[in-house]
């Protein structure tokens, strides 16, 4: 998440005013219930109020896994940004790799894609759903990044926020992600706009690495990064947090390949990444699973350079019990309402 320079923000101020007006008109329409559709399953939405990554995918995965363990049959509904020629988005491929038992409904019209699921789901986890208000939700969770909350910035396009700070009052719960500790200043800021303190505080924890080397996949500890010279390629919304995690594990970043969010990888790009990594003296390439599901289609272009993919999980610093109680209560209320 990056803000434009001050001079650009000034030039973009008229566009920001137009954008804010459109957002306000849209808010009033949905607040009145116009165009909101209920689907035949309880919906748990996970979203944010900023453009860029806040950790929606691992939180959605955590919720879906919890529902599976509880005997529910969740599905994940998502827009599927830049699905490309395969018709499968990088996030959908990531979900399919990590939780293959959970069906994925992908498409801009999430009402239609949910209805098209082969088997009726027991619940829906709506990925990036806070602004997708056409789908009625039974629990609305907003994520706030502890490092770059965006609460002190402007609205698009002069700043990163998709909505005004007051939109947080629409959420049922706010969960802080990428936190290293409970921050009372951020907690007070969230409570000021949300009306309640954050429900939970979480961090992104690397539990291991998956190594891909000459067609062989193996599990490796995070400690394998210690003292290792690596090149990086991150087509995600917040790559800085991943770089910090590499350095915290003792990895030495010798080259960073600039990649935009949801970037496509063809054979030539993969060859180029491998070549620049080797030229920089890297001993391995570190990328995300979201990137690997695309890079791996051209694994023959990587050569002898190992590719390391961190395994990312959500770890709770505070509020774990309350978080899952909110999930369970939502499913229970829906079951009671259904009779």
Describe this structure in words.
The chain has 339 residues and is of the alpha/beta class. The chain has two domains: 6-199 and 319-337, 3-Layer(aba) Sandwich (Rossmann fold); 206-312, Rossmann fold (3-Layer(aba) Sandwich), CATH 3.40.50. It contains ten helices and twelve strands. Strands 1, 2, 3, 4, 5, 6, 7, 8, 9, 10, 11 and 12 form a twelve-stranded mixed sheet that branches. Strand 2 (74-78), helix 4 and strand 3 (104-106) form a beta-alpha-beta unit. Helix 4 (90-98) crosses helix 9 (289-295). The chain is globular.
The gist of it:
With 339 residues, this protein is of the alpha/beta class.
Layout of helices and strands, plus pairs?
Elements lengths: L5 H6 L1 H19 L11 E5 L8 H14 L4 E5 L11 H9 L5 E3 L3 H6 L7 E5 L11 E7 L27 E5 L6 H11 L5 E14 L2 E5 L8 E5 L5 H10 L3 E6 L9 H13 L4 E4 L1 H7 L11 E12 L1 H18 L2
Parallel strand pairs: 1-4, 1-5, 2-3, 2-4, 5-6, 6-7, 9-10, 9-11, 11-12
Antiparallel strand pairs: 7-8, 7-12
Helix pairs in contact: 4-9
Distance between the termini: 45 Å
- Unreliable parts: none
* CATH level-1 class of the largest domain: Alpha Beta
Named CATH topology of the largest domain: Rossmann fold
Task: Give the overall pLDDT as a whole number.
Answer: 93
Known CATH architecture of the largest domain: 3-Layer(aba) Sandwich
- How many H/I helices? 10
Major sheet details: 12 strands, mixed
Total individual domains: 2
Q: If you compute it from the alpha carbons, what radius of gyration comes out, rounded to the nearest whole angstrom?
A: 20 Å
Structural class of the helix and strand makeup? alpha/beta
Strand residue content: 15-25%
